[in-house]
Amino acid sequence: MTQPNDGIDWSLTTWEGSRRAELRDWMKLTLTEKWTALEEMCDHARATLDWRRREGLPYIDPYTRERVPGKAVVREEPPPPS
Questions:
Q1: Which residues, in sequence order, are CB contacts of 56 under 8 Å at separation 6+?
Q2: Domain coordinates of the chain in residue numbers?
Q3: 18-65 pLDDT, tens digit each
Q4: 66, 60 in Cβ contact below 8 A?
Q5: Half-sphere exposure of 36 (CA within 13 A, CB side)
Q6: Distances 7 to 16, 19, 23, 65 between C-alpha atoms, Å
Q7: So what's the pLDDT on residue 79?
């Protein structure tokens, strides 16, 4: 059995601790780095949307906020009764 690593900050292993660490890392970035990260996230979102359209999968239209059902057969749970 191996000895535990005493260098681990266990406070970062919770949801709250992980979120705080993520925010600290984000705050360390320069404005240019943040802008680049935002552009990369937008590119990824566009590529994912294009892929879902090509595959005929359902997606949420980013302009109308409406759900586009797509053409592929996708098993979905019915919405809960209101």
A1: 70, 71, 72
A2: 30-71
A3: 999 999 999 999 999 999 999 999 999 999 999 999 999 999 999 999
A4: yes
A5: 6
A6: 20, 20, 21, 46
A7: 78
Contact 14, 6 (CB under 8 A): no
Neighbours of 17 (CB within 10 A): 13
Residue at 23: amino acid letter: L
Three-state secondary structure along the chain? CCCCCCCCCHHHHCHHHHHHHHHHHHHHCCHHHHHHHHHHHHHHHHHHHHHHHHHCCCEECCCCCCEECCCCCCCCCCCCCC
What is the separation, in whole angstroms, between the first and last Cα of the chain?
54
Token pair recorded at residue 81:
């009764």
